[in-house]
Design brief:
Structural class: mainly alpha
Number of helices: 3
Oligomer: single chain
Distance between the termini: 19 Å
Order of helices and strands: HHH
Helix content: over 70%
Radius of gyration: 15 Å
Length: 74
Amino acid sequence: MSTLTEAIREQLMASSAEYQRLNQEHASYAAQLDQLTQKKFLSEQEQVEEVRLKKLKLRTKDQMETLVHQALVQ
């Protein structure tokens, strides 16, 4: 990861409400996934929830990276 990309992420965290919101969502999904992975066994419903959270987390990360890319090309 380049230092330019890291600098853009830091700038977006400081100045972009959308990036901050996405970062909070990503952290929330990660925390929920951590709770699920603490369990030895997952029910069928919990397994479905785990897949759903992973997809949401990935989508949120993709949206954050899109914002970083847009800032890079400006």
